[in-house]
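Fold this sequence, please.
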Amino acid sequence: MGKRLTQIATRTGDDGTTGLGDNTRVPKDHLRVRAMGDVDELNSHLGLLLCEELPADARELLVEIQHQLFNLGGELSIPGFELLKGDAVLALDQALEHYNAQLPRLEEFILPAGNRAAAQAHVCRTVARRAERAVVALGAQDSLRAAPRQYLNRLSDLMFVLARVCNRMHGGDDVYWKSERLSRSQAS
């Protein structure tokens, strides 16, 4: 593959627009650009999560997800183009099944806390949800395939599950929400 980026500071965005992959220019606050930005932010947060101690298979999975998010961002940047394949969604479904099978059933809500890896996985979960909302908003305006929306939906679920997996490393556990209402009903 040849060198694609020859210049970073082009100054073409100084007017408040940015170029899409099909060479059209749109305002930087366009729904498509917002969705691309949220996917990019999610990928950056995954990079930060990869700096933490993780199970080896989870690390390998997250690296693959980063590549798929690049595909998703590319697809968003070129209206009508397909880069994210359906098997990417299937891979997340399989990962969800694999990691969920290792976890105890949830009995209560959990807080986005625990060790650093789990906390960062929760950040990834929330950014994935925001990216999903941005893709849904874009889909209401422009024609989009279902795969990008589905991928982000599954990814946010997977990040929740991986946070639970991370909290169990070295014998830890989830951090449970202490609901006053539930505490009162259990005391009765």
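The CA atoms of residues 2 and 8 lie 16 Å apart. The radius of gyration is 19 Å.
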